Sequence to fold (174 residues):
Amino acid sequence: MEPVNTASAQDLERLLLSCLRSPRWSRRVAAHRPYPDLASLLAAADEAAYDLRWTDLGEALAAESLPALPPDTYAAAHTALNAAHAAYEARFGHAFVICLDGLSPSEVLDRILEAIRSRLTNDQEQERAVTAEELRRLASGRLLDALRNAGTARSATDARPAAPRRSHVPPVSH
Fold:
């Protein structure tokens, strides 16, 4: 917890914004330090994410980075993913995000395609709720990753099931 509790305000903001590009979220998480342990930090991060307004989530969605797809992804899958992604963005007006906790690389593409297709049946309000939850999960996973990289999340595997893999799924061209 030392990097979070002792970091300068600027360094902590940079760390938190690398987890979720929401200034409101990062300010809320930073405002509650010091944290006695990892579980308290993760609980505060979750609570701050649950309290975000759609405008805050829109900020975070706009800043999502494009992930690499598994290198052995075949051309037909890229075509299917591009079509599904385009349909999702046309319907909802924002990027598709999904947290891929615990999935093996061989499961990623199928899970993404299934999730996009399933979520296309949501109405706007349902999809906002799902998107907010996915962003919350992404933020928690990224925060754990950042702490692991800093060598401080010694009990992180106890706090969350697996090191999450996360994704904003972009259109892919090949």
